[in-house]
Each structure stands twice: as C-alpha cells, then as structure tokens.
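Hey, can you fold this?
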Amino acid sequence: MGKQMTEMLKGTLEGIVLALLATSPAYGYDITARLREQGFTDIAEGTVYALLIRLEKKAFVAVEKVPSEKGPPRKVYAITPEGQQYLDEFWRTWSFLSDRISQLHTEGQGS
C-alpha cells in the first residue's frame, strides 16, 4: 500500500471496522481476515487490535469473552448503540466527502 493510501486509511479505519461489526460480531483475527477479503491486504493484525482497544475505550464496541477450542477465550467485539451512532455519522461524512471529491475529479477531467 502506498503512503497516500496509508494516510487516508488512518482516518477511515474506525468507520470501516465498525461497518464490518455492524454486519456481525467478530474477534480480532476475523476482522483482519474480513478486511483483507475486502482488499485491505496490508493491514497488520496489530493495527486492528490497537484500533479495537480504542473503540472499546470510546464505548463504540462491547467485548464478550467466548471460550475457544484452542487456548484462552477469544474476545468477540460487537458494535454498541454509541458505535452505531458514530458509524451513522461516519457514513454521512463519507457521503459528503465522496460527493465533493467526485465533483472535483469530474471538473478536473474537463480541463
């Protein structure tokens, strides 16, 4: 991933992870795998785990420890009502920015 992509991703990764959790609760490794399936192949597990800790501190996700067949219990993350509110605002902001950027791109093509 290029530097520009990495910088843009920093500002949107919280919303992306919450969007994944809005479809179904998941544990950290599963979230990383789902991100990679979506094309975010360079995201490290450590980045996702650090993000999940921040989301938990903000009360955007709830954590449930679920027994694992191998090793210690897994932490399963689920979006909270506060997280859903944040995600809704994220999508409104994303739509606004996306529309403006597309408009600028289209206008720039005509020059």
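Oh, and this one too while you're at it.
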Amino acid sequence: MAFLADALKRVKPSATITLTQKARDLKATGKDVISLSVGEPDFDTPDNIKNAAIEAIRRGETKYTPVAGIPELRQAVAAKFKRENGLDYKWQNTIVSTGGKHVIYNALLATLNPGDEVICVAPYWVSYPEMVALCGGVATFATAYQKDDFKLQPEELERAITPKTKWVILNSPSNPSGAAYTHAEMKALTDVLMKHPHVWVLTDDMYEHLVYGDFTFVTPAQVEPNLYDRTLTMNGVSKAYAMTGWRIGYAAGPDHLIKAMDMVQGQQTSGTSAISQWAAVEALNGTQEHLPKFKKAFERRRDLVVSMLNQTRGLKCPKPEGAFYVYPSVAELMGKTAPSGKKLETDEDFVLELLNTEGVAAVHGSSFGLGPNMRISYATSDEKLEEACKRIQRFCAELR
C-alpha cells in the first residue's frame, strides 16, 4: 500500500509475539495449550515494590517526569552499576526508558546513518535486526554455534567487523540460548574490540541476575575498562524483579550519547511512567531477598527441562548458564513426517505441528537467526513444564 512507509518493508513481525498469539487463539477455541513461547517470569512483582508504587500514587507522584528519568531513579541506577558491576557513572550519565527495547531503539536512532552496520550475534533476540532496519542501519551477523555452547568465538567477531561497523550488541545471558560469558570468554571478545576503536558496544544485560550454580556475571566495560568510553551498558527491572508490565529499562554511557538519546526520547515518548519509576527505585535500592527464591526455582526448572528434552528422540539440548530459556536442536527430526501427514522441512514446521498436535507453544530457532532449533521458555510452573515435555516427547516419538 503506497500510503505506508518503505521502512516497514524492511521489518518482520516479532516471531515470539506471533507464536504467543497463535497459542492464545488456539486456547480460545478450547484447546489445552501450554505456552512456552513468552519470555516473562511467572512470579508476581515483590510486595515491597508494589507498595512503593502505591505510596507514590498516594503522594501524588502522577505528573510528567523529566525525559531521562526522575533523579532518584537515575541515582539508584548509578549506584547499582557501581555496587554490582564496578562501573563508575555519574547519575547524569544514565537514562531511563520505557523498557530495555526502548533504550536500544533510542541508542540506534540517535547514532545510525544509512549504511552503518550493527553486528547481531546469532542466535539473537528477534528485535535487534528489526530495530536496526527501522533506524536505517544494516544488521550483520556473527554466529555463536551450538558446538561452542552458543557463545561467540573471538575469530567469528573479528570476521564480522568491517569499516562500516558502528555497534556490536552483546547479550549475556542470552535470549534465546541462555548462554552466558565467563570473565575469560568476555575478555577474549573485548580483546578483539580493542583492536577496532570505531566499534561501539551495546550490552543487553537484562538477565544479569538470573545465572545459576557458581556462575559469575560480567559486563564488557567491567572486563575491559578501556571500552568504558564507547560502551552503552543497558539493563532493566523486567526479569529479575518480575516487572515486565511496569516497562522500565535503563542504561549508562558517555555524556554525548546519553544527551542524544535524551533528545530523541524527548521528541518520541518523553519520560516514562512516574509510578513505574518510583517502583523501580525500590527495586534497585530495596531488599533483594526475592532473588535467591527466583533463582532456585528457575535453576530447578532448567534442570528438569534439559533432562527431559535430552531424553527425547531427536533432540539435543545444551544446559545454559542463565536466563530462562533452552535452545534445543531439532536437526535430526528434519525431513520426518508429523502425525498430520505434514513433512517437517523447517524448524517453523516443527513448532507449528507441535502446537497443533500437542498444544505446546515454542518459538522456531530460525527466527532468532540460527536453526534448526526451537526456543523454550521455562518461566512457568514445574507441573506445566513436566507435562509440556511429556507432550514434546510423545510428538517426537510419533514422527516417521
């Protein structure tokens, strides 16, 4: 349709949202559906955070906020980066946006010129390349292979960098694979970036607190302080605090970048919800006593799902270090025929047949840039996960 912008031709709808909606539609017809397609903790927001929001409403904190966020939250963000990541930022070098996605979009919009390249590490979160395209840039790809536990190797990063590269987006722990980088693994990547001073680093640290066992989280500017002046460190409260619907993301970076993002945001959305910001102040400054409970539950669920999937015919599922996703390979099942008579030629065929036959919603790996795999979110109850895995086992056993 000529009325619509040409930019829309460069962008695909989000596969995760599409699959989640398909699952909802099937459920509405009365089918018993277990959705493992959405990246959202099933826990409720902790009470201290909810109470802080209620108190903010009662105090009358219901007006417009400064574009880059209320000073109290920006100070809490700077304190968090110092306390947890060893990163020194003035509060004026922070920004608060309507979710982590909004932070990333603002950074890209404020910096990309036509033809500028942004390296996305496959498998990548579905929105990265689409946001790059909307902002006029070109998404390029560096692959993190299953044989390397979905962790980008330095030679792959080196190969992906060109004179046109402006950003590399590093997401650890990863959506969709759950892979997280140790200090040594991250240092190998930052060593490559030190050789290319024109390349900036955009971190997506949204799953920082969801790491398991004795794994220690690190972020690029912490590992290589010489990258500090060309790194935007992004995080948010959605996952670790079960605050997906509150829509608060935040970042810290060099002064000129934060000012540019502030200007973009000022003409786009202005400041985010005052009530959500006061809730986020409590999330960052208040008790963290919910976190061990969240982590214990997610680790138990990860172990259950990995074990059951690896007992499933034709599936191979690495055990990730963090987030709440697994990314099993379905390569051995390609070419087989589903009970419906449909031949499985792609991982999208696989997840659609799984949904229609067994009522289990997952997301096909090719939408994250690396297949044939599927992403399963284990952010739901043990009972649902066990039943879903039994259905997956049955579906795979019946393929011919």
